[in-house]
Write a structure and sequence with these properties.
The complex is a heterodimer of chains A (about 325) and B (about 375).
Chain A lengths: L2 H30 L7 H19 L2 H25 L4 H24 L16 E2 L16 H10 L2 E2 H19 L1 H11 L1 H6 L4 H27 L11 H11 L4 H21 L2 E2 L4 E2 L1 H17 L20
Antiparallel strand pairs in A: 1-2, 3-4
Helix pairs in contact in A: 1-5, 1-6, 1-9, 1-10, 1-11, 2-3, 2-4, 2-9, 2-10, 3-4, 3-9, 6-7, 6-11, 7-9, 10-11, 10-12, 11-12
Chain B lengths: L5 H26 L4 H13 L2 H26 L7 H18 L5 H30 L3 H24 L21 H7 L13 H18 L1 H11 L1 H6 L4 H28 L10 H11 L4 H24 L6 H15 L1 H20 L1
The chains are: A mainly alpha (about 325), B mainly alpha (about 375).
Chain lengths: ~325, ~375
């Protein structure tokens, strides 16, 4: 393979991995606190829609981002209410949230914009601009005759929108928060043994609500990046299962932040390869594109099966906490 | 706190949840500048106003009876099978192979073959998640969810590369021979003198679905296996102590669930589409979750809930045709039904319990 197309694949890997990373880290907070969340997909979708709509209306990408976060927080609040306050089934609540987002975005979108569920294309000010880092060549410049190091820096590291860098910084930040702060210790404890946290005089409900709120915030950023960074506007069902891939990545990473980065990059790479190559001919046999697309799910099942290191979820995950009386 | 009387738990709670869900949907319709009353009139007229519309309602309901029973049989064993979508997709493959590979002389033989094939393919798609849950403790929700996506990719591959007829661009199989077409519900009712439109996809599968609901009821409440399944779902440790093998019962429950999901294909693929397309399930696997929750996990309730959702689906199609209200309003309504009956039942139950307790006190005084 030529260097140029190799760099292009890495470039789109970073772009495609970013929404996964946001959603995956989002899920990490919620699940570490003992609240399962299969509604990442729905929160991303509703955020992508709200972000694109608000950004189109105001022409301001930041107002769009705020709207995306707001919408995802609202959906997170529903999930919190169902799973924490009313001790309902967290999985069913997640399923409901995914459908709610899927229906609501199309109903509101086709009423507001009359385009069958999509928003009008966003113009420059309403989208995230790509940032060119110092010493990098502009992303528009041709790739021919570029050395690997310079090309890698200019096209893979540089030339992304701000949210890509935010997502990457989120990984060390989450690691620090989780393993080096009091809040992080309590968060991990409440997902393993809420009764112990309660006995220590810390509110289980408050901890879980704050974790679910962080999940909402990050899903909001994931959605905002989808509709205002990765593409220019909202399309119906545009998250296309990425929330589930993020969930798969979270399991693959065994609920740890650095591994989450690796898993999201791997799944982003698979996505980039599937988009670029379709069927891959490796001499002896042809790998169909459908196999590449299914690979994240297959890998996750293998990891779940426990043949390659067992993925053990937080022990209190999925269980509503009932205070002893 | 006093427990609710049984009738209130079985009838009142789902009814109140449904009313709340409808109220929110009405607010949504009003918010997009349309009249909720007009919308509900169009839905009722379009789905129940003629035997043509009613046929569509029953056709959708048939799909949901299959997927609803599938979800509920796993629920009875405390297993949440979210993979109905994938299992029904594979059931479609089984049906298509049964209908295409052998030149059946009569539809009844083809139907028996496709019942066996669709159930076997659906169950096979549930086997690995079932085994992983039973033996390796891998969470069934996540594995079945992953298998939905794998099923979609597999179906995409099979249709594009293997089953697609030469020269066709569509990722779909060839049309089935007309000899395997199932009798329409209208034709069957015509024999006994009931006039019913045949210009809709409702077919004999509806009767099969009703019979299956009865069979599931017998299985769950009148057989050893059903007892073991429910006991395992209620109290796993007690069931194991009573000699019920947890591995075997988990696998049985999920094989039954997957097989029943797969059976949906006789209605949607053999009965209506007459060929296998990429998205033959169209979300019915997920609606099964709503139906099972709404029907309180009982076959009778599931049939009623399926009819309700059949009405909603046909009504939603009519909405899209007759008004500018998008049919996705129904998706919202479905989400709200799942949310209130499945995730927020305590929100309805607690005030009701308080109300009943107060009534009881008044009576005592």
């Amino acid at each position: 393979m030529e260097l140029a197309s190799f760099l292009q694949i890495l470039d789109s890997t970073v772009r495609l991995a970013t929404p996964l990373l946001f959603a995956c880290i989002a899920g990490l907070y919620s699940e570490r606190s003992g609240v399962f969340d299969i509604g990442l997909e729905g929160k991303m979708l509703v955020a992508a829609f709200a972000a694109a709509s608000a950004s189109y209306a105001t022409g301001n990408v930041w107002i769009g981002t705020a709207a995306g976060i707001g919408a995802a927080l609202l959906f997170a609040a529903i999930h919190g209410l169902a799973s924490i306050t009313f001790r309902g089934n967290q999985l069913i609540s997640g399923v409901a949230i995914n459908f709610l987002a899927s229906g609501l975005t199309v109903v509101l979108g086709s009423t507001w914009f009359k385009l069958g569920g999509q928003t009008p294309a966003l113009t420059d000010g309403a989208r995230f601009a790509d940032i060119t880092l110092p010493f990098a060549r502009p992303a528009t410049e041709s790739l021919s005759g570029v050395g690997f190091v310079s090309g890698f820096y200019s096209h893979v590291i540089s030339g992304h929108s701000i949210l890509v860098y935010v997502a990457l910084l989120l990984v060390p930040a989450t690691w620090w928060l989780l393993y080096r702060t009091r809040f992080g210790l309590r968060l991990r404890a409440v997902g393993e043994n809420p009764a112990a946290v309660d006995t220590a005089g810390v509110s289980v409900v408050a901890l879980r609500y704050s974790a679910v709120a962080i999940t909402g915030l990050l899903c909001g950023l994931a959605g905002a990046y989808m509709s205002m960074g990765l593409s220019a506007g909202f399309l119906r069902e545009m998250t296309a299962g990425r929330g589930y891939i993020a969930l798969a990545a979270l399991i693959f990473a065994k609920w740890r932040p650095w591994y989450a980065l690796a898993a999201c990059m791997l799944f982003g790479l698979l996505d980039a390869v599937a988009i670029r190559f379709q069927n891959i001919d490796i001499g002896l046999l042809v790998i169909p594109v459908q196999f590449t697309q299914a690979l994240p799910y297959i890998l996750t099942v293998i990891i779940l099966a426990g043949f390659v290191g067992k993925a053990i979820p937080p022990r209190a995950g999925g269980e509503p906490y009932v205070k002893e009386r | 706190m006093t427990k609710l009387p049984r009738w209130a738990d079985v009838v009142l709670v789902p009814l109140i949840c449904l009313i709340i869900a409808f109220a929110f949907s009405a607010i949504l319709i009003a918010a997009i500048g349309q009249s909720p009353a007009h919308a509900i009139w169009i839905m009722i007229d379009g789905s129940l106003g003629s035997t043509y519309g009613l046929g569509y309602t029953l056709y959708f309901a048939t799909n949901f009876i299959f997927t609803g029973l599938a979800v509920s049989i796993a629920f009875q064993a405390s297993l949440f099978n979210i993979g109905g979508e994938g299992q029904a997709t594979l059931g479609g493959l089984g049906t298509a192979l049964a209908c295409l590979l052998i030149p059946w002389p009569h539809w009844s033989l083809a139907l028996m073959a496709s019942i066996l094939a669709s159930a076997a393919f659906g169950a096979a798609w549930a086997l690995l998640p079932a085994w992983l849950q039973a033996r390796r403790g891998s969470h069934i929700v996540i594995t079945t969810m992953m298998f939905n996506f794998i099923a979609y990719a597999l179906m995409n591959y099979v249709l594009v590369n293997i089953l697609r007829p030469q020269g066709s661009m569509d990722p779909a199989t060839a049309r089935f021979p007309v000899t395997v077409n199932l009798p329409k519900l209208g034709d069957i009712l015509g024999v006994v003198g009931i006039p019913f439109s045949s210009k809709n996809p409702a077919n004999i599968s509806f009767l099969i679905a009703i019979a299956l609901a009865f069979a599931v009821w017998v299985l769950l409440w009148h057989t050893r296996l059903g007892y073991a399944l429910r006991a395992f779902g209620k109290q796993e440790k007690a069931a194991i102590y009573a000699g019920i093998d947890p591995v075997r019962i988990t696998i049985y429950a999920l094989l039954l669930s997957g097989g029943i999901s797969g059976l949906m294909a006789i209605n949607a693929v053999q009965g209506a589409a007459h060929r296998l397309v990429l998205n033959s399930v169209e979300g019915a696997g997920f609606i099964g979750i709503a139906v099972a929750l709404m029907g309180r996990n009982h076959p009778f309730g599931i049939v009623l809930a399926s009819l309700l959702f059949g009405f909603l689906y046909q009504g939603g199609t009519q909405l899209a045709l007759g008004t500018t209200i998008p049919r996705e309003v129904i998706t919202v309504l479905q989400a709200l039904v799942i949310l209130f009956t499945g995730a927020l039942p305590y929100m309805v139950q607690r005030p009701l319990e308080a109300l009943f307790a107060r009534l009881a006190r008044k009576e005592a005084a």
